[in-house]
Amino acid sequence: MSELQRKIEELQTIIDEGRRIVFFTGAGVSTDSGIPDFRSQDGLYSMQYRYPPEEIISHHFFEENPEEFYRFYKDKMLILDAEPNDTHKLMAKLEAKGKSLGVVTQNIDGLHQKAGSKRVYELHGSVLRNYCTRCGKFFDASYIKNSSGIPCCDKCGAIVKPDVVLYEEGLSSPVINGAVAAIQSADVLIVLGTSLVVYPAAGLIRYFSGRKLVLINRSVTPYDREADLLIQASFSDVFPKIKV
Ligand code: CNA
Q1: Does the chain have fewer CB atoms within 10 Å around its N or its C terminus?
Q2: CA dist 57 to 66, 69, 70, 194, Å?
């Protein structure tokens, strides 16, 4: 039996025995759905833009250069025809079976909910919600995608902003509190598809004090040594073999 096979069997046992599993996810779980992550070789950070992506999706850039912000955002981050993949679906299935307390995610694509997950703590917000910066009117993602240039409110004319936490912005306290409570009551924490370098999100896994910390990612992370089970592989080589 290969090392990977042995680890997949161990993951199966941990999932079978888990009673309050929490998943902590990052952009890597959506790459199989066609949404690029940030730090993979074919991720957004390795593509060439006029400004570095981490600058474009920062608060000051949004304020000072909304046209360029929206050019990048609509093209690279607003992928509205993406469908959940098997990894999203497995997490939703485990919640429906009463084995998972839900998902804490850094993702902003809404695919966990589309797969059927009900308890999703969106640390960085969602591209599916957008609000007028003056009157607060709600707009869906297609309004943003279909607008030419900078999307403006059809009621008051002010600029519309995605409900996404940009660099330099704080996270929502109710969302953090919910995520921390879920992680604290978990007996198993499965961390997947994240490079674990974006704070404060990555620091939330420190609240876990349950039985098993599982880390699944195809590249190294700063938390690898702390995992009870570390699987360094692509999800498509792991999750199709897990039965729920
Ligand atoms: P990241 O830093 O890009 O890390 C993703 C990790 O996933 C990398 O370490 C990859 O090696 C790994 N990975 C990618 N694909 C696979 C795969 N198929 N199998 C196994 N491992 C894989 O992304 P993080 O989430 O850690 O960074 C946090 C940022 C990224 C958050 O602020 C997000 O909002 C932001 N982001 C979100 C999305 C999305 O919502 N889908 C897309 C791009 C960026």
Answers
A1: N
A2: 10, 7, 9, 18
Three-point CA angle 16, 22, 26, nearest 5°: 120
Which residues surround ligand 1 with Cβ inside 6 Å? 26-28, 30-32, 35, 37-40, 43, 106-109, 124, 193-195, 198, 217-219, 234-235
**30 and 134 within one domain:** no
Catalytic residue numbers? 124
Distances (CA, A) of 163 to 20, 109, 219: 29, 11, 29
103 lies in the same domain as 223? yes
Same domain, 96 and 179: yes
Same domain for 155 and 57? yes
Residue 157 Cα, ligand 1 centroid: separation in angstroms? 34
Contact between residue 224 and residue 215 where contact means Cβ atoms under 8 Å apart: yes
Q: Are residue 242 and residue 201 in the same domain, yes or no?
A: yes
Q: What is the mean pLDDT of residues 164-174?
A: 96
Residues 159 and 141 in one domain: yes
Q: What digits encode the pLDDT tens for the residues 34-62?
A: 998 987 777 777 777 788 888 999 999 99
- What domain range is 222 assigned to? 1-35+83-124+170-244
Q: What is the C-alpha to C-alpha distance for residues 207 and 236, in angstroms, rounded to an integer?
A: 29
Q: Please report the pLDDT score of residue 28 as a whole number.
A: 97
